[in-house]
Write a structure and sequence with these properties.
Blueprint (H helix, E strand, L loop, with lengths): L4 H12 L7 E2 L4 E3 L4 E3 L2 H8 L4 E2 L7 H9 L5 E4 L6 H4 L6 E5 L11 H7 L4 E8 L9 E8 L6 H24 L33 H10 L6 E5 L2 E12 L9 E3 L5 E5 L2 E10 L4 E3 H6 L4
Parallel strand pairs: 1-4, 5-6
Antiparallel strand pairs: 2-3, 6-7, 7-8, 9-10, 10-13, 11-12, 12-13, 13-14
Helix pairs in contact: 1-6, 5-7
Length: about 300
């Protein structure tokens, strides 16, 4: 059960490992873009290519879907980047339902673990497999694997690393579950518990009164999507990448400096952020020098 590219890597790893995929459950097709062209999920495209049976329920409690799901007679269900499952679904297979999550649980439970790990300045994160139960991301841990985060790494780059490590961990998990040779470890919450809630637009706006390291982490953690932004001449300026310049200054936080040719930097609490990869409202994404060539500031 999965929808985006992140889930395709896991499905492919299970196929390559020789497992019998009884069925693939993914999001329903929906129209997207200007032409309202029908858009199929990444998981569906892969499954069709491999000749796997695909189910696309609109409602997971739909009796017709539940009947089809039961008819697959799956011994275990695997969930990667899908949606919340009702108990009647996750409790169906005899060996349970396994979830792959993009963090080292119990930290960063929630919808956006990759983004929040970078935003909080973590240097290590990882992936975890666990059995689903009632509360989201709370099941007993089967296995986990650590993945380092580089000082300039963004959410897209970390996503791709976790996607590969997660697929490998899932193959290891399925083998252990198949052989009944694993030990479940209950998640223990701690005082400094970190969370990964869904990200909304207001969270993405840069607060230039913050230290440059904190702003740098926000930009990395939201790049390439949903992207940190600020205002420039009353229009939205998305920031995909920036370099930190520590400095003592008397500038007003949020004010900018530019030579009109090569650099555009904004003042923050303890220095500047030199923006290098940006997208101005109504324009395409571009390097700052290219943007400045066609713009008077």
């Amino acid at each position: 059960m999965g929808t985006p590219d992140f889930a395709v890597a896991s499905l492919d790893a299970l196929v390559q490992a020789g497992h019998d995929i009884a069925g693939v459950i993914t999001a329903a097709d929906k129209p997207a873009g200007r032409g309202q062209k029908i858009n199929e999920s990444a998981v569906k495209k892969y499954a069709v290519e491999k000749g796997l049976k695909v189910l696309q329920p609109l409602k997971l409690k739909d009796p017709a879907f539940l009947e089809e799901l039961a008819a697959l007679k799956a011994e275990v269900q695997v969930v990667v980047a899908f949606r919340m499952l009702p108990e009647v679904v996750w409790n169906m297979p005899p060996k349970g339902t396994i979830n792959l999550h993009g963090s080292l649980l119990p930290d960063y439970r929630g919808a956006a673990p990759i983004n929040h790990a970078i935003i909080n300045g973590e240097t290590i994160t990882g992936v975890t497999t666990f059995f689903l139960k009632h509360e989201i991301d709370t099941g007993d841990v089967i296995f986990s694997a650590q993945v380092p985060i580089g000082p300039d790494e963004n959410a897209g780059e970390l996503h791709d690393k976790l996607m590969v490590t997660g697929a490998q961990l899932l193959v290891k998990t399925i083998a252990a579950v198949e052989a009944d040779s694993y030990k479940e470890v209950p998640q223990e919450l701690h005082e400094d518990q970190k969370h990964a809630p869904k990200i909304f637009k207001e969270f993405c706006e840069i607060d230039w009164n913050q230290p440059i390291q904190k702003i740098h982490n926000l930009i990395r953690g939201l790049s390439p999507y949903p992207t940190a932004f600020t205002k420039l001449q009353d229009k939205t300026l998305k920031v995909f990448k920036a370099e930190m310049e520590p400095a003592d200054h008397q500038e007003t936080p949020g004010s900018f400096k530019t030579d009109g040719k090569t650099f555009l930097k904004f003042a923050a609490k303890d220095g500047y952020l030199n923006l290098t990869d940006i997208q101005y409202e109504g324009k395409k994404r571009m390097q700052t020098a290219e943007f400045l060539r066609g713009m008077r500031l």
